[in-house]
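Re: the request from the purification team.
They wanted to know what the chain is likely to look like in 3D before they choose a buffer screen. I agreed to run a prediction and write the result into the notebook, where they can find it.
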Amino acid sequence: MARIGALPYGLGMADPQSSTGGQGDLPATVAAEELRASHADRDQVVELLRVAAGDGRLSAEELDDRLERALTARTYAELAALTADLPGAAVAPAGAGAVSAAPKDLARIHVRGSSIRRDGRWVVPKELDVKVRGGAVTLDFTEAVITQPLLRITAEVRGAVLRLITGPGIEVDAGDISVHGGSVTLPEPPGPGVPVRLRIEIAGSVHGAGIAAGPPPPPPPPRRPRRTFWQWLRRAPRPPAIAA
């Protein structure tokens, strides 16, 4: 069940002098569940719902309904109701410093003919079961919440791509992968002076597809915008290059 974290002193306690003397209709005390939610709180619940849908816990219709309710929620009680039936979900006031989701023992990502991407502050589980056929799965670890040193991935990739975006201190080992007409590309292991924050062990099979792991690609080079027809007609010089 979703929980509401501890409140700052000034929010959870009522001032004895505040119940009278020009406070209008403001309540003397406010329950934790009835505190107003912020944009950051709504964004965190949206991310929890998106991850749950990727795991197959929510249908597309349920996801659309809950996303709409999350984006219009006013209080923590309304947000908590949207994740109450999702294992490991926790909703707390952002000011209390306890907004998080407990890591799952096992998460599943099964994709057929479509693409799924996990990025931002998603919580890395202890084990991942990935099956992708004719699509793509991208796991971006650059901002992920890492709570344990080891992640085991069991992958079955057929005619598709499994892409891992790593960062400093992340080591990837795919020594237990069988490859049939595909490829596996791994990053260089961290140097001797770089502590390993997360070790990823991939096992499974690749058929006519590929697994690629490595740092994020560099930004594209600056591009020069095209001239308008009248600029071309007047033989005006092309505008300077701008970043993509």
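For the purification team: The mean pLDDT is 77.
Please add any questions underneath this entry.
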